[in-house]
Amino acid sequence: GSCGNMSRIKAIDHNSAHRIHSGQVVLDLQGAIKELVENSLDAGATTIDVRFKNQGLDSIEVLDNGSGIAEEDWPSIGLKHHTSKLPSLADLPHVTTFGFRGEALSSLCALCESITIVTSTKQTEPMGAVIHLGRDGKVIDSEGRIARPRGTTVTLNGLFVPLPVRRKEFERTIKREFPKALTMLQAYALVPAATVTKPGVRLKVETVASKGKRNVMLATDGRGSLRSSVISVWGPKALEGVLDLDLELQVSVDPVMARREGLDVQSQSVKVSGLISSASWGQGRSSTDRQFFYINQRPCDLKQVGRAINEVYKSYNTHQVPLAVLDFQLPPESIDINVSPDKRTIFLHSEANFIAALQLPFRETQTSPDVPNAVNEP
Ligand code: ADP
Ligand code: MG
């Protein structure tokens, strides 16, 4: 019985617990789209189309030409902690895919009015299937035959409708939320250093107004050249006074850390590649809106690193900051991606040493006289 304020500890029912947790995995519009785009990249897509209907308030659609999802996997798509990317925990330090926790789609199922997936694999193309997922992540129904080249389309309808407070806030702040989502998509459009294993991606972002009028917000050519992606995102003028950066740093490793991790090294090499404005060219920016940082090609927040770079720049150009699109290639065992739900915060072993090692070579690039003619592509 009830006695005063004392109540017994009870388990939250499964559905409520799931909704509480999901609200932390995907916080906003940008977070929702990030998960879909990352899934497309993980599926090996080379073209990705993002479509916002009514700025994302009505629906968000991400189409790709990736691997598709095989029929035997449909029941697991929306199930929590179900992933095709992490065979065991031992593989976590070496994971090269964006996803590995299997929580995005299960969370999105709980956070949307409905989710529709159209998918086709190498085995089924040119035919595909339409799959409807319920709030609990289970397949409601699937229709087996629809024309669809290989790949997957995920449509989120009514984002946050199941959370009335957040939905209201989403509607109220859409004028800010939508540009934030575009900036996040720019980060994916600009991932530096396309490699054989990660080719260039043709990313197209469109808005569709209620009357069906389309507006292209962003489109890359998919050649995988960082300079051509910069042109796609900001136009050719953005490359004026911009240098190619290609450094290899030796970062000293904290001995305590090294012992703990069983590493027998005093220093680690870190490659830095990308583009940065030359201060001597006088082409800085008044805001950091053109600064994107990556670790092993994963977009991330590196505030300290950004600050260190801006500080060096400031000693040559007092009132501006550089355009900077930089990828830091680190040994996978010296980073931890699994820190924040959105994976944008990344723990770096020896971050202070890393920043110290970066400053001098960066200073040298800023004082080198041979600024290439930025308008001509290499
Ligand atoms: P994670 O990405 O961490 O594995 P998600 O919830 O984002 O978890 O996705 C669950 C699974 O659904 C993935 O592991 C993948 O197998 C499949 N999947 C999701 N989106 C796509 C896509 N666009 N193309 C192919 N498979 C996909
Ligand atoms: Mg994912």
From TrEMBL:
Protein name: DNA mismatch repair protein PMS1
Family named by the database record: Belongs to the DNA mismatch repair MutL/HexB family.
Domain of life: Eukaryota
Limits of the DNA mismatch repair protein S5 domain: 230-359
